[in-house]
Amino acid sequence: MGRHAHLVVREEPTKLNISPMIDMVFILLIFFIVTTVFVDERGIPADRPMPSLSPQQEKEAEPVIFRVTAAGNVVHDGMEVALSRVEGIVRGARSLHPDVPVILQVERGARAGLMIRVMDYARMGDPEVPVNITTVE
User: Fold this and answer.
1) Residue in 108, 121, 117, 102 with CA at minimum distance from that of residue 69
2) Which of 77, 94, 78, 76 is closest to 86 using CA atoms?
3) Residue 66's beta-bridge partner residues?
4) What angle do CA 31, 34, 36 make, to 5 degrees?
């Protein structure tokens, strides 16, 4: 076997140096940021009419609150009322503000039957009235 010298040519991988390109991009970015002018353009002011509210809409509708006590009383606005008056109170409030809800505040120890009767009388005033029940001390 003869010794033959084999010439092996190996190609070196070419490397791209992109750091000058990144430097150029940052310089351009800084240039555009510095030279940008922020203009505050104002338009012509317009006189817009304000919506008018009726006196009923101006006053915020407060919910109708009934408190059922443990002693078996029904209280509205700090005064004891009869069950028969619940219907009229609800009807009057709903005639002024059709979306006003009824809130039943039930004390612990109050009779469930009385609470249900108050709810029934409230619904007789307006069958669509939302009745929310909360428990109070």
Assistant:
1) 108
2) 76
3) 76, 104
4) 100
pLDDT digits (tens, 9 = 90+) for 23-51: 999 999 999 888 887 777 777 777 777 77
Which among 62, 56, 61, 64 has a CA at the least distance from the CA of 129? Answer: 64
Cβ(134)–Cβ(106) below 8 Å: yes
Q: Closest Cα to residue 106, out of 116, 96, 121?
A: 116
- Angstrom CA distances, 114 to 67, 69, 120, stand at 11, 9, 10
User: Which domains does the chain show, CATH number per domain?
Assistant: 61-136 (3.30.420)
Side-chain half-sphere CA neighbours of 38 within 13 A = 2
- Give dist(CA 47, CA 30) in Å, integer: 42
Is the separation of the CB atoms in 106 and 115 below 8 Å?
yes
- The 10s digit of each residue's pLDDT in 50-88 is 776 555 555 667 889 999 999 999 999 989 999 989 999
SS3 104: strand
